[in-house]
Amino acid sequence: MAPKPVRGSDPGGTDDGRPSGTVLDEGAHERGQAKRAVVVVVLVWLAFVLPTFAGQVRFPVDFAGSQDGRPTVLANPEQGDAYYLYPWHHYLGERLAHGEVPLWDPHRFGGTPFAADIAVGLWYPPNWLYAFGHPLHVFTVISVASGLIALLLVYWFLRVLRLHPYAAAFGAIGFAFSAFIVKWATNEPVTASVIWIALPLGGLEVARRGKRWRGTLLAAAGLALAVVGGHAQLALFVWLTAFVWTAIDLAATTVHARRAGLPLGVLPRRLAAAAAPAAVAVALALGLTAVQLLPTKQMVDGIVRQKTTWEVARATFLPRRHAATFLLPDYLGSPIDHNYDGPGVNYTETMAYAGILTLPLALYGALHRRRRVVLLFVTLTAIGFLSIVGTPFYRLVIAAPGLSRGLFATRFILLVDFGLAGLAALGVDRLVRRERLRHGRAVLGGSFVASLVGVGWLTLGRPGTSLPASYILPLGARATAVLVLGAGAVAVMMRVPSWSGRMSVALILVSASDLWMTGYRFNPFHAARPVYTAQPPIGDLRSVPGVRPRYASIGTYILPPNAAMVHGLYGLDGYDPLIALPMVELVGVAEDQLARAHSNFLGPFRPATAASPIFDLLGVDNLVGQIERVDAEASVGRPMLARPGAFPPAFAATCWELTQPDRVLDRISTMSSPALRDTVVVDDVPAARSALHATAGRGCTAGEVRVTRYEPERVVMDSEAARPSLVVLTDSWFPGWEATVDGKHVDVLRVDHALRGVAVGAGRHEVVMRFRPRPYRTGAAISLATILGLTGAVAGRTLRRRRGPPGSPRRR
Question: What is d(CA 93, CA 122) in angstroms, rounded to the nearest whole number?
């Protein structure tokens, strides 16, 4: 009897070019191909990150000032976000290096939670490296390693799906170097969340195939890492893909049970067994990330950004003109070439490109016989596409819990790129294994022709772009060359089966070259040099006496928004996706900053605002920026001006008013600086009523308060007054601040809408404020219990496996 051919082989030859009739061990043969595929993907990754090994950093050190609050970066203006992240990493590393967990940041917005801010990624393990090295070098290591992690995880997932190694390599490269991943490479919270997208999917598939314990742990790890990575919206996308994969699995289980004629009573048990790994993985991920999720939940309930409305979402849909960038990614220009003319939204937010070869191969892959896998990638692509173009489907998306806070619909491009890369991998798998389907060649050939026609029309006609032909023609010529080379490789694979392995590698390299030419130069590497240097205002601000001098930017940013975190200063302004609403509303009495806060900024302020009593109340004793417009006698270009009328960091008042919380701002807006100094407006809540009584207008006198110790999570003050008084620390109020007066616990009251106050009796007292948020402690206990439970379970399972089953010689 003739031996059966190896799966995927052909009577005329084998995948690696050996002559027909050779009997191969399929497992060993495919393992060899897998090794070659991994080598190829690693070499492609090296092509993107090679300057790292020459000592260069993947950080835009070519900073050249700022304009309208956004850093001006010479090589690539789209990389300004890296400057806002740098201070977070610096502060995180500095505190961790001293053995401290940074719960509070006193340097921005009058003080703001740090650990609760999911964007800083405190609990993301790679970020702990900032405690051991310079932020530039650690940032570079994490950035380039993230690309490799995304690459290998997607490859692993596609291999778990039993796709051919070369097909898995093609899909992994298409996703890991897609426009979405490459363009966000210097925004660490984004990449730290999305690179794990394949891990939960692969874990659930491993569990489905019988290794339930291992698969469940892998899925839980992927979901947890996506959360602590730092970008809440994209972490939800990762969880969404796991939900879709589970739903498809349940649907497949139902169809299989019905076709097998199983009784209806058996179906619920089958569905419960199929859903169990996903349910357990979600529970474990929630337990592991409770230390982040609970404090973040408390924080986001009081931030500027709340539910996204349909009107706001419409402004973030992908404009029609950008459809051309699916074929020619720089059809509307590029910030690298300083000619981008995309309307309304920036280049990074609108790029959707996973390689031009991905499109025809994705259409071909949609015909694959693996319907369950096809349905996954088609569903993700459809969800992403229907969201980014602004269909009514997006109304359902923004109504979902969590996703309702997502501002940019275009970030659903992540699902489009991932779905297209997966479908393209299925297409390559069909080609390598020579899966013959009816009309398959016609579909593949037609898709290549359509892509060529589309490229030609865009290149020659240039509809929807104002760029000259001299810029568009090279883009079109390059895309045409890639399509022609790809189509040639596909044709050889179909006609000469013995060359299928070689042509698969050629197809991978052609697609990788296309992505390299598109994405490599978007993230310029530079020689490391100081970023947040000691500019002239820094030295002046450091010399200001007092424990906590506070400055505000006027007119424009001379210092980057978060520079205070790097230099140990205290600023009113800053940058963060999570800005507390009370402080923005209090500042809004002087100048409406709500629109800027929606764009993640507080400040800079108009010169006229510098005279506001609110600036006095907040202790803003120095201005930095366009000072010549504030002080007519100041010399042009003077960077700093003192405000002698600012309140001290802490003061005591013997008069206060209990006012309904929704009317506090109205009352403050009518008060002058002396009135704000003498009378404190307190939220009329039970805690305040039990600690205070109305004293407004009864001979107000000022008490003396001296701050003796000012630390991020602990402030010590000595107060002295002849009458009972209210000690006010002009820092942000936030739940979790506790206080003691002479060692006895008292309530921290919310005063003047956004500040902290403590009631004290007459005489001299020591007031100590500590930041000890209960959600953090509860979350830490849950996360620790989850880790200990998992450790015990793994240890017990390992011990049982080593001892063997009951009655075995090893047990005896």
Answer: 10
